[in-house]
Amino acid sequence: MSYNPRQITIGGHKYKIVYKKNLEDFGNLDIDKKLITIRGTLNDNDKLETILHEAFHACLALSGLSYLIDDENKEEALVRAFDSLLLPVIKREVKKACFKGRGKN
Ligand SMILES: [Zn+2]
What we know:
This protein is α+β, with helices and mostly antiparallel strands. The protein has a single domain (7-99), classed as Arc Repressor Mutant, subunit A. The protein is built from three helices and four strands; from the N terminus they run E-E-E-E-H-H-H. It has a four-stranded mixed sheet with strand order 1-2-4-3, with helices on one face. Strand 3 and strand 4 form a beta hairpin. It binds zinc ion. Zinc ion (ZN) is lined by residues 53, 57, 76, 79. Zinc ion binds next to helix 1 and helix 3.
């Protein structure tokens, strides 16, 4: 079964997720419409990473930090640092925690 979530909740706000085959970017976020668009042809791992990437943009917008950054390139650099440095740590630790949880049963 493939990974195609239709909705994600960020800071208590529900964001709709839609998939488009010919999207130029891997994904994008419309903060006003609370809409995340993902390229439909990505594999599951790339979809997950792209959804989390767009979710982080949403976090910056919701928190107001986007206004402090006030520069698309700086925001993109920050989000990509999260993608490439922190996200792999989170994925690894979640896997460890899930494995540990299953072992107790
Ligand atoms: Zn981005």
